[in-house]
Amino acid sequence: MSKRALITGITGQDGSYLAELLLKKNYEVYGLVRRTSNVSTSRIDHILDKINIVIGDMCDQSSLIHVMKECEPDEIYNLAAQSFVGSSWSQPLYTGDVTALGVTRLLEAIKINELDAKFYQASSSEMYGKVQETPQTEKTPFYPRSPYAVAKLYGHWITVNYRESFDMFACSGILFNHESPRRGIEFVTRKISDGVARIYHGLQDELKLGNLDAKRDWGFAGDYVEAMWLMLQQEKPDDYVVATGETHTVREFCEIAFEAAGLDWEKYVKVDPRFMRPAEVELLLGDSTKARKALGWEPKVSFKELARMMVKSDIELVERNIRSMKK
Ligand code: NDP
Ligand code: GDR
Fold it and tell me: What InterPro entries has UniProt attached to this entry (predicted)?
C-alpha cells in the first residue's frame, strides 16, 4: 500500500518540489491550502490532478485537527510559514502566529487524533543569526536576528520538545538558503534573476538592492527536498543541517547572474537603503557532514549552475509574458 503524506505549504517553492518527489515515490499526497481570494496554486497547477487539496490554516487549530483526521497521514511535512524575513519586522505577531505557534497547533492535531505519524519541521539557518562560529553545525548556538528567526527557533524547540515529551518521530531539518526558478520574487536571488531578465528584455534599466555584502550558503531547492524525505526514512528521529558548505556574497550572485545574460552587473545594480534590514545576518555557511554521512545526502547543483538556471528561466518567462501581451 502506498504511503500517505500531508504537506503544509504545498503551494510554496519547497512544497511544490516535495510534492513532485513524493508523487514519483508513489505516495498519496495531501496538501494543506489556505483560503485566499486569488488562487495560489501556480507552482502546483501541473500536478493538481494528482494531489488531494485540503483546506486549512496554520492559525486555525480546528481546521488542522479536521485535516489531520481526514488525511490520516503516515508522514507530515510542515513547510508552511510566513517565510520572508524582511516582512517579519512589519508583521511580527502574525509571523509568530503562523511560523511559531502554527507548529504547536500541527503537533497538537497529531496528538489529539492519536496518529502514529512522522513529522518534519522546516527549521532554518536563520536561527544561527549573529555569527557565533563557522561553519555552522547542529551544535552551533543559536542567536536569531529577526522576528522570523525567533519564530523559527520556537518551532525548532517545540519539535524537539514533543519528540522528547511524547516519543514522537519528529525531525527538524536546519536548511540553509535554497533557491530555484520557483523562488518567491521578493527573495534576493529571484529578485536578481527577474531583474536581469527584465533588463535583458529592455523593460527596466536598474535593479535596486540592499546589503550586497551579506553572505549566504545557497543551494538548489530540488536537492533539499530530498533531504527532508530522507530524514523521515531513518530509524530514529533527529535534527540535521542541510547546506552546500560554500558561501557567497549577494554581490557574487549579481556578478554571475548578469554575466549569464551577457551584462555587466555594475552598470545596473544600485544600493537602496530601503532594502537594508534593521538587524542583518552577515554570514551563513553550513556544515552538513551529519546529513551527508547518516542520510547519504549531497547537493547536486552548484552555485553557478543555480544562478544560471534561474536567469535562463526568467529570461524565458519574461519573453513569454511580452509575447502574450502583444497578442
Ligand atoms: P514559501 O514562502 O515559498 O512557501 C510558504 C508556504 O506556506 C506557502 O505555501 C504559503 O501559502 C504557506 N502558508 C503561509 N501562511 C500560511 C498559513 N497561515 N496557513 C497555511 N499555509 C500558509 O517558502 P519556501 O517554500 O521557500 O520554504 C518552505 C519552508 O521552509 C518555510 O517554512 C520556510 O520558512 C522554511 N525554510 C526555507 C528556506 C529556503 O531557503 N527556502 C530555508 C530554511 C527554511 P500561500 O501560497 O497561500 O502563501
Ligand atoms: P533570507 O533570504 O533572509 O536569507 O531568508 P533573502 O533572499 O530575503 O535575503 C538574503 C540576503 O540578501 C540580502 N539582500 C536582500 N534581500 C532581499 N530580499 N531583497 C533585497 O533587495 C536585498 N538586498 C540584499 C538580505 O539582507 C539578506 O542578507 C531566506 C528565506 O527563505 C527564509 O525563509 C529562510 O529561512 C532563510 O532563507 C534560510
Answer: GDP_Man_deHydtase, NAD(P)-bd_dom, NAD(P)-bd_dom_sf
